[in-house]
Amino acid sequence: MANVDFIDDCERLIDLAPIASANIQRHVFVCTGKSCSRNDSVEVKDAFERELKARELQYGKVSKGCNPNGSVVLTECGSVGFCAVGAAVMVYPDGVWYAQVRASDVPEIVEEHIVNGRPVERLALLRVPADRS
Ligand code: FES
Prior knowledge:
This protein has four helices and five strands. By secondary structure, it is an alpha+beta fold. The chain has a single domain (24-127), classed as Glutaredoxin. It has a five-stranded mixed sheet, covered by helices on one side. Strand 3 and strand 4 (96-98) form a beta hairpin. The longest helix has 14 residues, at 41-54. The protein starts with 9 loop residues before the first helix and ends in a 6-residue tail after the last strand. FE2/S2 (inorganic) cluster binds at residues 31, 33-36, 79-83, 86, 88.
């Protein structure tokens, strides 16, 4: 097990992880697990990257084409159980899990959901937390 010092100085933490003080509003996860990858999820992730960067929404370093003042974090993730209905895309904090996402759907998800706050219902298969009452 790694022996790493715990840092309890908040300013030091923010120096080390500037995202901790950024204006992040949404986190988009694209599953790049084995099954989703067979449904072109890498292309889906690339499409999100293109679309978010073009709108200067993707948080990150300028040297990577991102915006240090961006409000959206985009990351890949492993399987979430949508393997048979991938590619899977999750948008938080809304808790919307999209299924069968293709690269061609990405501009609509960014425009409708990320920019206008209206999830794309035709692709939304699950809400977290689930309402099973
Ligand atoms: S591989 Fe993407 S949900 Fe399983």
